[in-house]
Amino acid sequence: MRCPKCGQENTAGSAFCRFCGSKLSAPSKKRRKPASPSSGPVAKTSSPSNDTKAQGVKRRIRWGRVALLATVGILVAGFGYGGYIGYQAWQTLPSVQSMVSLQAMGQDSVIYDRFGQPVARLHGTVNRVNVPLSEISPNLQHALVAIEDHSFYTNPGFDITSILRAAFVDIIHRRAVQGASTLTEQLAKDLYLSDKKTLVRKAQEFMIGLELAHTYTKQQILDMYLNEVYLGDGASGVYSASKAYFDETPSQLTLAQAAMLAGLPQAPSLYDPLVNLKLAKQRQLQVLNAMVKYGYISKAQANQAYAAPLNLHPVAVDSANSQIYPYPWYVDKVIQVLEQQGFSGTQIFDGGLKIYTALDPTIYNIAQNAVDQTMNYNFGPSQSPDPTYQAAAVVEDPHNGDILAVIGGRTFSQPFMEDLATNPSVQRSTGSSIKPLLEYAPAIAKGYTQMSVIQDVPIFHVNGQWWPHNDNHLYRGYLTLRDALAISDNDVAVHLLHDIGLDYGYYFAKNKFGLPLTTADLHAGLGIAIGGLKEGFNVLEMTQAYATFPNNGVRMTPIWVTKVVNPDGAVVFQDSPHGTVVLTPQQDYIMEKMMERVMDPNPIPSIGPGSDATGINLGIGRPAAGKTGTNNGEADAWFLGYTPQLMVGVWEGNRKGEYRQPATPNGPAYGDVAAGPIWQKIMEQVDAQEHLPVEHFPRPSGMVYLNDISITSGKIASQYAPPQDVEGAWFIKGTQPTTIGDTHYPVKVLARNPNELWQQGCGAYVTTIALRRESDWHPGGPYIWDSRYWAPTKMCTPSTAPSKTSPSTSPSSSPSSPSATAAPSTPSTPPSSPASSIPPAPVVAPSPITAPSGGKP
Where does the sequence pass through the membrane (predicted)? Predict the structure, then answer.
């Protein structure tokens, strides 16, 4: 390009002249059109505007090159970080010692309570009897390899595919998230390493596994693993486990028994067949399927083994290790929690750990005594180690999730050690205790108030009968949510779930309250409103959900183990409080006021006979709230209640849940009779011994109190509402009613016969107050208790003789006054047709629905 100043030619694209240094103009990148023959000479330089446009053109981004560079960067970073982890692991790698010396080096682990005091010692003297591989059933050897490390006989001590997959996940999360351990690496971890779950420890596990694989044969490694692995019930090694579960030697194990034992290393407490046979059978099936997959047995053999009896015959092999620990229900749960966090049995029992927990020994003893004393009173002293009638309880600090005590049944004894409080396979019918979680709290969250009115009038037909049935077979008419929950009215609960939406209630209870509901529960329909669930829940799950209420609407995750410290003083595990917001503080306060009414010591006025709250006899002399629950047949009874400081959940019932319980000295085994007294004893004694001050439920801001609400309309009481139907209540600001209710209205009746409506020519009349007939009721429906306050349906017949009308008014009359109006002439059946002055009620078509089980208070 030519310099405009000195005229010398420069290399194309130069910015400055190499002869005189003048700035050169950038050539235009705009493609020029060829000149037409008639045009003049073409300009040899670009215009300034074209130069500017050319300089502003951006270069095209080459995304393929960007992706390649990013991939290279990630790989370099990954290898760099992996190298750093490997260096750290090598620097602190322990020396490989002989198996004999290692197996003799166990240290007791100690469990501490919430106050830092030791409460139990997990013995380092391991219940182990070594046996050679030749005396261990091939079934067990094959089962273990199939489920734990199917490439054991061919891999070099590690599985490269699993390692790459796990490494990628671990590096992304920058912590040990996914396992990839072979049997060799598991042996290395159990024998040589600490229980700290880190990337460095995973690297050490890999390195020591390589050393073991180099030093020992596959048969020797399998021999050491089978004699070392912890299999639950205090038994390390297959000999002790075979004796502990089946009273057999390892060589005599059947395929069914071998598959059961092979499934235990993953979580010995969880899959213990003596405690949780249902989950143990599920795990056994996984093992058998793995054996089929890798060619050890046929599908027919697997099916036969799964159906074969296990012949469980528990035997205490070593008295030192089979002893019952102090606070056994809690200690067993702590061991299970540690296993779920990745601690091996060897580490838990022989690792010299200091295990700090949330256990409160005083509360534990109070709860165990309350269970035993109440059950002995109701059903007599236990005559066997596994009594049919059982009870379980969980005590929680609702503000941080600490589980202070758990009682899995009547006095802990062998061989019965089934934890009925926390075992995931123990699923009990909730009865009415599900109502606050599935209907009432979701309704409040959706904008309902505690004074919202539902008509206690059945509208569903099931198998030719009206459904649902209230426990006392009484339908009351208009009911506020507050009163309906207090008396545990079934019909209102079903109406409410129908109104808010079955899907809405289901997902609220599942996702907010954390209840393990299933799609089968959803498909069961509206019956779940009163406990008609396909499975049910255990005491821990229900207690966790209810603990939301005394914690301002926040559900905390349960905490059993707060911290674990290894022998070197390093904290290798720690748990801290964390929760899920379920309700706003205002919504939660409304629920507390409603459940306080459940324990009202006075009959609830103006809603008919038998209107006692279900917890009327369960007061503890301080503010408390809760809910009862009973399923059909009284096989399950519940009480879940709380104070501002403490949450206690109690279940009582038939251990297997298959048949009705007999009546107690205080009546049928309902929630308030069978489970409620256990709750009451625990609360009263804990308050006294722990010196808990009396506290009221804190009222948040944004609340409004109104004292003139009609309990038949849920709105501001009109001038016609009788005084006994007017009550006060708290509302979330913005939800309080602002209109006047119209469920009461004046009506003229014949003075000489108040069962007839007056019209002109009938003689003297009086004006009385009538209750507007419920719109949900239709002719042919069952009798409604408050129909006695409806206006008469029969019109008087005018007299043919001339007569002077003498009106007589009684404006102060009310439906509850004897002079107001009489009950219908046929008390078992409501009037067949309404008067013209009364709004007609629509006929509601019956909805197809299946009648549920459950549904008592």
Answer: 66-87
